[in-house]
Specification:
Blueprint: E1 13-15, H1 18-21, H2 25-32, E2 36-39, E3 46-56, H3 75-78, E4 84-89, E5 93-99, E6 108-118, H4 120-127, H5 134-139, H6 144-150, H7 155-158, E7 170-175, H8 180-185, E8 189-192, E9 206-209
The protein binds a DNA duplex (13 and 13 nucleotides) through strand 4, strand 5 and helix 6.
Length: 220
DNA sequence: ATATCGATTATCT
DNA sequence: GATAATCGATATG
């Protein structure tokens, strides 16, 4: 397992445009792999590479929170693309999604695992883990609930946050110099069924970077 | 290594 | 009142 890489300065990360998210969530999910989630914290932002995601379609996907139509909880999924949809689950954990598709149409991508790049000490503190232990390092951001805890993501703080602006406290970017289509091309991407659902469990809409140690759960 | 189980609460039926 | 896009702990092979 690789040691965390040198900290990228956010000055060299630029946000993905809203149009990036204004598409089918399966397409967005695949292309989000390798991109960077940023938590602005004054100096010393938290950054991590996206290594595992799942696509949830709109009202036609029985596994999606939007399957039964718009409610107070899932309203962000029906709003404009590129916003954070945060939900609370099992009385314990938050999960992060980004809304996709044009306004009025639901759809989103769930963040399942990240590879920490900078702010690792802060993440460890938030998770109550010790980085000296390699096992604990993996557990920092390997899972949808874990990554939210590492980034201190809550519904109260971050639901409906605009993820397309570097001025937001939470946003998504890519390294300057890489083109959106390009950065995905060289990656080894694997698709599998989605984790932890019972409906539409056969759909292969989980996307991950093959071999990345931070990917959650078991492969296959 | 895999399996099972309890925690704990917002949300919806 | 039941459920849930999970996690961590415990038990067993």
């Amino acid at each position: 397992m690789p040691a965390p890489q040198a900290s990228p300065k956010t000055a060299y990360i630029r946000p993905l445009p809203r149009a990036f998210y204004n598409r089918d969530p399966r397409r967005v999910a695949r292309e989000l792999l390798g991109k960077i989630l940023v938590r602005n914290r004054g100096r010393n932002p938290l950054t991590a590479r996206i290594v595992e995601v799942e696509a949830y379609l709109g009202e036609k996907d029985p596994a999606a929170h939007s399957a039964a139509g718009r409610t107070a909880r899932n309203a962000v999924l029906f709003g404009p693309p590129g916003r954070a949809y945060i939900y609370f689950i099992y009385g314990n954990h938050y999960c992060l999604n980004v809304s996709c598709e044009p306004e009025g149409q639901a759809g989103g991508v769930l963040f399942r695992a990240l590879e920490p790049l900078s702010g690792v000490e802060e993440m460890a503190r938030a998770r109550g883990l010790n980085i000296e232990n390699p096992k604990d390092l993996i557990k920092l951001t390997s899972g949808p609930g874990r990554l939210c805890e590492a980034f201190s993501i809550t519904r109260a703080r971050d639901n409906d946050c605009d993820l397309t602006s570097a001025a937001s406290t939470l946003w998504i970017g890519e390294e300057v110099g890489k083109k959106i289509g390009d950065s995905t091309r060289s990656l080894r991407i694997r698709t599998t069924p989605r984790i932890g659902i019972s409906k539409a469990a056969d759909k292969p809409w989980r996307y991950l970077l093959d071999g990345n140690p931070f990917v959650s759960g078991r492969i296959r």
